[in-house]
UniProtKB/TrEMBL annotation:
Belongs to the vitamin-B12 independent methionine synthase family. InterPro entries: Cbl-indep_Met_Synth_N, Cobalamin-indep_Met_synthase, Met_Synth_C/arc, UROD/MetE-like_sf. 5-methyltetrahydropteroyltri-L-glutamate binds at R15, E16, L17, K18, K118, R530, C531, W576, E620. It is an enzyme of class 2 (transferase). L-methionine binds at I446, G447, S448, E499, D614. This is 5-methyltetrahydropteroyltriglutamate--homocysteine methyltransferase. L-homocysteine binds at I446, G447, S448, E499, D614. Transmembrane segments: none annotated. Its EC number is 2.1.1.14. Binds 1 zinc ion per subunit. It comes from Dyadobacter endophyticus. Residues 3-319 form the Cobalamin-independent methionine synthase MetE N-terminal domain. The lineage of its organism: Bacteria, Pseudomonadati, Bacteroidota, Cytophagia, Cytophagales.
């Protein structure tokens, strides 16, 4: 049985590409040195896949920065503002590429980067293609041909991977009014066809066209675009074998379109859309055709060992209907979203052999795919690989490390009333007004202060054992007290302790909760050279003891002003981790929510009167299909409410969100019922507030008055203007004054100057009303 892979991680097993890219941008290595690193990674990836026995190995899945940007360059969709960089010299191609990715400030030019957004519902971000009304396409980059040739020279006939033309258009944006980007298909296709022809001429037998757009809600025109694209491609290339892949969800109403495509093979993601398999196997037109079916049985987006029994059942069901020759075995999606290699995890004290035995990273997943292809045609009851796999699965299913009856019982005993505060917001607001005695337009910040090298050093030294606990904590306390004095001097109303003790807003909590484990090298590309190392939630989550109370209580004891407690919300902790696949996401989130709830109650007991629970990732969790939004939003909002509702009315609960549009989820944001929400709005000039205004959002709200992503210090006037704009749509008594987000990436001088101006703006505004 044929096995294949959809794509392999490309940053290098030790993030070599990240480092080389950053050196190239800093000017410390040249183009050739960068390309050499890139080439080495490609070669290693191909070898790894060859050694694992993968039959069809992908090429062009590599990218220096982003594969959607690569596609824009392939078809010459280069926005006008970059044309000044196109002077035909070949050495400039990289300059242009990185200018589109990161912006360009050199030689008197100042060109901004392309917009970046999330790749489906993953944490990978791509550069959004930009289209204009009279968009012209032309072949520009031959990367796909070069990489095919490169592998060919090593004796590997790869399966080139291209982002399919329809999904490419769907993922882009119209930059002017008066046209629909889907209508660009007919002018885009000749580019694809010319490249496919050349690939075929050079010896490519299979090509993979990724069309995950088929798991979106599509209108009729978009559906027809798929049919039109693939019949034109088929007509131009009758012999080339074309594999169309779908992933990240079931096909649902798009199944008929997918089946009708005149291609040689169709790939399904069974880890996120298993229901499509029985549907396709009873479809006469598919079954009676000669098309192959690729089964994505090994999860490309998570780190759990595959359950061979379950996968083989799927494979055997398909083989029974289609026969062995028509079935391929594969990961569910590209392995881009998995860390490289479990064998790099050597620290047994952290990742114990028991837990490690439940995991598989990209390299291990390749072996799972080829083993499954081998086992598919055998009686595997005595096969050692099969037996070892089932033993690991059984160990995970029953491990006392994972399963804590008390935690499960507590979740099952959650009652409706646990989601509700004592009284409705209007009553709480009156009580808080009296107890907290905050002025009109209270000011605050979002939590973190600059993480200077010194602060990072402190944590690193402590981790290494170079500082004792006592020395470390003394230094952190000094930082906190300094920042409190400084906030008081500035005149901020609700202070923060600064989060100096935290490396990362999820990791900090994960390290203190049971059921989490951390890797040393489990990096996954987030965008460009940025990689993240998500914690792994493997077991039932429980809080052994208070996590933040010591620091918050210390800070409150050192100031006569209110100091805000600072927590990360359950949905964000879930969303930024690798999650369990052995229970619904909702259950894991509720377990985390109960742990946070206990922390909130303990903070209240310790005298903290204002507590913020950050939920920047609520929107990221939205399902790809609209009909599934309601269910998700219900439990996500419930999880937040569960974490927040254990306190008395006089305790003020804040939440914070950034990078969000709120229009289509505003009712859910309101249902979270935080007393105060702070949001990012300054870059949209308060436009994001409109959703709150139209909804008559009842609770208090702090629309960020300045962008913390830039070192630029905003003027007092600018911020007053934004606040006045906000006052047009929010009642004065509900308006807070704060920056867009936490300040950890900023430096102190600009932070101080910006906050000083922000406080002046708040004061002037108070005087004017
Ligand atoms: N409290 C966090 C901070 O200030 C919030 C970060 C975020 O919203 N991403 O750093
Ligand atoms: Zn934020």
């Amino acid at each position: 049985m044929l096995s294949h892979n959809l794509g392999y991680p490309r940053v290098g097993s030790l993030r070599e590409l990240k480092k080389a890219n950053e050196q190239f941008w800093a000017g410390t290595i040249d183009r050739d040195a960068l390309q050499k690193v890139a080439r080495k990674i490609r070669h290693q990836n191909w070898e790894t896949q060859q050694n694992a026995g993968i039959s069809l190995i992908p090429s062009n899945d590599f990218s220096l920065y982003d594969h959607v940007l690569d596609t824009s360059l392939m078809v010459g969709a280069i926005p006008g503002r970059y044309h000044q960089l196109l002077d035909g010299k070949s050495n400039k191609e990289l300059d242009l590429y990185f200018a589109m990715a990161r912006g360009y400030q050199k030689n008197g030019l100042d060109i901004n980067a392309m917009e970046m957004t999330k790749w489906f519902d993953t944490n990978y971000h791509y550069l959004v293609p930009e289209f204009v009304k009279d968009q012209k396409f032309k072949r520009y980059s031959d990367k796909v041909l070069l990489e095919f040739e490169d592998a060919l020279q090593k004796g590997i006939v790869t399966k080139p991977v291209l982002l399919g033309p329809v999904t490419y258009l769907l993922l882009g944006k119209e930059k002017e009014a008066g046209f629909d980007r889907i209508d660009l298909l007919d002018s885009l296709l000749p580019i694809y066809i010319s490249i496919l022809k050349e690939l075929s001429a050079r010896g490519a037998e299979w090509v993979q066209l990724d069309e995950p757009g088929l798991v979106f809600d599509l209108n009729e025109k978009e559906k027809l675009a798929f049919l039109s694209a693939y019949s034109q491609i088929r007509e131009a290339l009758p012999k080339l074998r074309i594999l169309v892949t779908t992933y990240f969800g079931p096909l649902e109403d798009n199944l008929g379109i997918a089946i009708a495509l005149p291609v040689d093979a169709l790939h399904l993601d069974l880890t996120r859309g298993a229901e499509t398999l029985p549907q396709i196997l009873v479809d006469d037109s598919f079954v009676s055709s000669t098309k192959k079916l690729s089964l994505g049985v090994v999860d490309g987006r998570n780190i759990w060992k595959n359950d061979y029994r379950k996968s083989l059942e799927w494979i055997k069901t398909a083989v029974n209907v289609l026969g062995e020759d028509r079935v391929l075995v594969a990961p569910s999606s590209s392995l881009l979203h998995s860390p490289y290699d479990l064998e790099l995890e050597k620290n047994e004290a952290v990742l114990t052999p028991e837990i490690k035995n439940w995991l598989a990273f990209a390299k291990q997943k390749l072996h799972e795919v080829t083993t499954l292809a081998r086992l598919a045609t055998l009686d595997c009851s005595n096969d050692s690989a099969f037996l070892a796999n089932q033993k690991a699965i059984e160990s995970r299913r029953t491990s006392a490390l994972i399963h804590k009856p008390a935690v499960k019982a507590r979740v099952s005993e959650v009652r409706e009333s646990d989601f509700d505060r004592q009284n409705a917001f209007a009553i709480r607001q009156a009580i808080q007004l009296e107890k907290l005695k905050l002025p009109l337009f209270p000011s605050t910040t979002i939590g973190s202060f600059p993480q200077t090298d010194e602060v990072r050093q402190l944590r690193a030294q402590f981790k290494k054992g170079a500082l004792t606990l006592n020395e470390y904590e003394t230094r952190i306390r000094e930082e906190i007290v300094d920042s409190l004095r400084w906030q008081e001097e500035l005149g901020i109303d609700v202070l923060v302790h600064g989060e100096f003790e935290r490396n990362d807003m999820v990791e900090y909590f994960g390290e203190q909760l049971s059921g989490f484990v951390f890797t040393q090298n489990g990096w996954v590309q987030s965008y460009g050279s940025r990689c993240v190392k998500p914690p792994i939630i493997y077991g039932d989550v429980e809080r052994a003891e208070p996590m933040t109370v010591k620091w918050s209580a210390f800070a409150q004891a050192n100031s006569a002003k209110l100091v805000k407690g600072m927590l990360t919300g359950p949905v964000t902790i879930l969303q930024w981790s690798f999650v369990r696949d052995d229970q619904p996401r909702k259950d894991t989130t509720f377990q985390i929510a109960l742990a946070i709830r206990d922390e909130v109650i303990d903070l209240e007991k310790a005298g903290i009167k204002v507590i913020q629970i950050d939920e920047p990732a609520i929107r990221e969790g939205l399902p790809l299909r609209k009909h599934a939004w309601k269910t998700y939003l219900k439990w996500a909002v419930d999880a937040f409410r569960l974490s927040a509702a254990g306190v008395a009315d006089q305790t003020q609960i804040h939440t914070h969100m950034c990078y969000s549009e709120f229009n289509d989820i505003i009712d859910s944001i309101a249902a979270m019922d935080a007393d105060v929400i702070t949001i990012e709005t300054s870059r949209s000039q308060m436009e994001l507030l409109d959703a709150f205004a139209q909804f008559n959002y009842p609770n208090e709200i702090g629309p960020g008055v300045y962008d913390i992503h830039s070192p630029r210090v905003p003027t007092v006037d600018e911020m007053i203007l934004l606040l006045e704009k906000a006052l047009k749509v929010i009642p004065a008594r509900n308006l807070w004054v704060n920056p867009d987000c936490g300040l950890k990436t900023r430096k102190w001088p600009e932070t101080e100057a910006a906050l000083r101006n922000m406080i002046s703006a708040a004061n002037l505004l108070r005087e004017s009303v």
